[in-house]
Amino acid sequence: MDEYQEIIMGIITNAGFAKSKAMEAIALAQKGHSEQAAECLEECKKELVDAHKSQTRLIQQEAGGTAHEVTLLMVHAQDHLMSAITTKDLAGHIVELYSRLNRYEAAVVQNTTNRED
Known about the structure:
By secondary structure, this protein is mainly α. The protein is 88% helix and 0% strand.
């Protein structure tokens, strides 16, 4: 495997891990585990930074005169990266909504408990 393919595979791998972490964050938030969800989102962001660094490396190579063939694998990598970024953005909003919902439900339960006393 040449350097170009290794960079592409790195983008795919990092983007895949990022998307998985974003989906894990949503699942954790849904169960009321807001802190763990936030940690997953941070891991997601780190993976995306790594993927973006690889992408930037390819862009710099091309800007420096080293043109690479646009392969189906490269298109796949870009698709993965864009999908992961979108998933991360949406997951952040969903995690926040679940956190608000969980706080609201806890407040309602607390109010109900206080009234019964």
